[in-house]
């Protein structure tokens, strides 16, 4: 960006919504991944018109623009890989409409996930995806990454709730996709094209979301198993039983050991644990499902079964799973945290495969994740100052992605491709699919100004 470009951006958004101070540029070099690159300026647009004007300018002057929400991407999605302007949407944070009769809300992209939940809860409704970063991440970021969460197995992911969007295309044209109807099969599904497009096809400036009545009752239980195989069989039995738990989380032996030794948690010295929640609109519904789960655990040889009897006990059972990532992170200064996903029947193969791969490189690692939808989080701890550890962590990642795809899985169940998984796209998508994605990118963004360098689309 030259001085004229910077001045033009400042004129569009106003001096109070523009910065090229070193402290802001350094801050905007990062997200929650271990990638970084410094932008040349940052702007906080407050209207769709401002976003459109900036993108028209960027096309005329050919500088890169990286849309950004809260910057919690774990994939380098908001790292401005080729410099240019960071377009931070957090000041477009109004909730524009709540319409309970139509079961929908209309929001600007910078609304924080938790703030929307707080507004909906007293009315008995929610927007269910529930990403673990919900206290800070934005709805715009959720839509752009198709975020999921701990309740995905029962309630799906962001995509399942997006009815309509307002999008500013890379050349500055503003378009509306979808409709406010619960059903619509009119034309191509452009809404779905933009959901999960990670800021490379357009800037999302307004979102119409379907909302759901909040379940009123839930039951929570944790079970431990002597072997991973037993836990895997319990998961399979739950799938066969017809029960759809709202939460079904798994922790491997390394996670349990780290939580015991580093986190000081009172957990049994076992090789696998499952955390299960069932829910419903009546206590009877939640109980009926949990009774079936408990029966499966007993028959499956669970070593311990802890059933929460109070809200405090629910919190106590959740504590281990919630602290798993941060406690393991203490083992080394850096970590690689992935979100590979396979069909549920392949979970045991993925779990044992990941262990075999990472043990071979001698790095500490843990695996936990959402057994209910086949999404695992292998987290490998390493020290970036040691070149051998860096090489090894990348070799381990290469093998984990290859294994996942060979099991019919996907590189990313929720974090997105960004920079982190761009080199692996060919493992999952055939040459024709990749070329189709690149053609769509070229069609909408011929000058490649919007979030360049991401998703392996820059050819
Ligand atoms: C501790 C932690 C826990 C997490 N847990 C989960 C989890 O459970 N489930 C999950 O899915 N993810 C999780 N994540 C990843 C991350 O929080 C999600 O991807 C989230 O949806 C990103 O929201 P954000 O507002 O931070 O977006 P950002 O990180 O700012 O942006 C993410 C991507 O979206 C694009 N983008 C953002 N806003 C717009 C917009 N308005 N228009 C176009 N593109 C845009 C960006 O360019 C970027 O590519 C976690 C991250 C952390 C750090």
Give short descriptive properties of this protein.
459 residues, alpha+beta, Uridine Diphospho-n-acetylenolpyruvylglucosamine Reductase, domain 2, Uridine Diphospho-n-acetylenolpyruvylglucosamine Reductase, domain 3, Vanillyl-alcohol Oxidase, Chain A, domain 3, five-stranded antiparallel beta sheet, 20% strand, globular
Brief summary of the model shown:
The chain has 459 residues and is α+β, with helices and mostly antiparallel strands. The protein has 15 helices and 18 strands. It is globular.
Write a structural description.
The chain is an alpha+beta fold and 459 residues long. It folds into three domains: 88 residues, Uridine Diphospho-n-acetylenolpyruvylglucosamine Reductase, domain 2; 122 residues, 2-Layer Sandwich (Uridine Diphospho-n-acetylenolpyruvylglucosamine Reductase, domain 3), CATH 3.30.465; 190 residues, 3-Layer(aba) Sandwich (Vanillyl-alcohol Oxidase, Chain A, domain 3). The protein is 36% helix and 20% strand. It is built from 15 helices and 18 strands. A seven-stranded antiparallel β-sheet has the order 15-12-14-13-17-18-16, with helices on both faces. Strands 5-6-10-8-9 form a five-stranded antiparallel β-sheet. A four-stranded mixed β-sheet has the order 1-2-4-3. Strand 8 and strand 9 form a beta hairpin. The mean pLDDT is 95. The protein binds flavin-adenine dinucleotide. The site of flavin-adenine dinucleotide has 36 residues, from strand 3, helix 5 and strand 10.
């Amino acid at each position: 960006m030259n001085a004229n470009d910077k001045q033009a951006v400042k004129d569009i958004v106003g001096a109070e919504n523009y910065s090229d101070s070193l402290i802001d540029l350094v801050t905007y070099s990062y997200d929650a991944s271990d990638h970084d690159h410094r932008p040349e300026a940052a702007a906080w647009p407050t209207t769709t018109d401002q976003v459109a004007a900036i993108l028209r300018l960027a096309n005329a002057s050919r500088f890169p623009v990286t849309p950004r929400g809260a910057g919690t991407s774990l994939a380098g999605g908001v790292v401005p890989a080729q410099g240019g302007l960071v377009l931070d949407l957090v000041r477009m944070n109004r909730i524009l409409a709540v319409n309970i009769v139509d079961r929908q809300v209309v929001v600007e992209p910078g609304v924080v996930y938790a703030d929307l939940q707080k507004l909906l809860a007293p009315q008995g409704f929610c927007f269910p995806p529930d990403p673990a970063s919900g206290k800070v991440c934005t709805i715009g970021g959720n839509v752009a990454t198709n975020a999921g969460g701990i309740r995905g197995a029962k309630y799906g992911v962001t995509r399942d709730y997006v009815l309509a969007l307002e999008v500013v295309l890379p050349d500055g044209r503003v378009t509306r996709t979808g409709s406010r109807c619960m059903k619509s099969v009119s034309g191509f599904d452009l809404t779905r094209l933009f959901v999960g497009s990670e800021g490379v096809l357009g800037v999302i400036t307004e979102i119409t979301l379907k909302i759901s009545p909040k379940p009123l009752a839930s039951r929570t239980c944790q079970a431990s198993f002597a072997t991973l195989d037993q836990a895997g069989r319990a998961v399979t039995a739950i799938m066969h039983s017809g029960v759809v738990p709202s939460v079904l989380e798994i922790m491997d032996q390394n996670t349990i050991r780290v939580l015991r030794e580093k986190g000081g948690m009172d957990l049994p010295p076992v090789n696998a644990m499952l955390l299960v929640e069932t829910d419903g609109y009546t206590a009877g519904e939640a109980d009926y499902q949990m009774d079936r789960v408990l029966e499966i655990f007993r028959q499956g040889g669970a070593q311990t079964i802890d059933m929460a009897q109070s809200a405090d006990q629910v919190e106590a059972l959740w504590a281990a799973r919630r602290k798993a990532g941060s406690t393991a992170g203490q083992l080394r200064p850096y970590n690689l945290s992935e979100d590979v996903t396979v069909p549920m029947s392949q979970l045991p193969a993925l779990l044992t495969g990941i262990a075999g791969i990472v043990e071979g490189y001698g790095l500490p690692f843990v695996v936990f994740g959402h057994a209910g939808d086949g999404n695992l989080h292998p987290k490998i701890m390493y020290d970036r100052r040691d070149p051998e550890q860096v090489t090894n962590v990348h070799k381990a990642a290469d093998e984990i992605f290859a294994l996942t795809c060979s099991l019919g899985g996907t590189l990313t169940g929720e974090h997105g491709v960004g920079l982190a998984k761009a080199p692996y796209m060919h493992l999952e998508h055939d040459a024709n699919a990749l070329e189709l994605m690149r053609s769509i990118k070229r069609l909408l963004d011929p000058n490649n100004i919007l979030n360049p360098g991401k998703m392996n689309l820059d050819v």
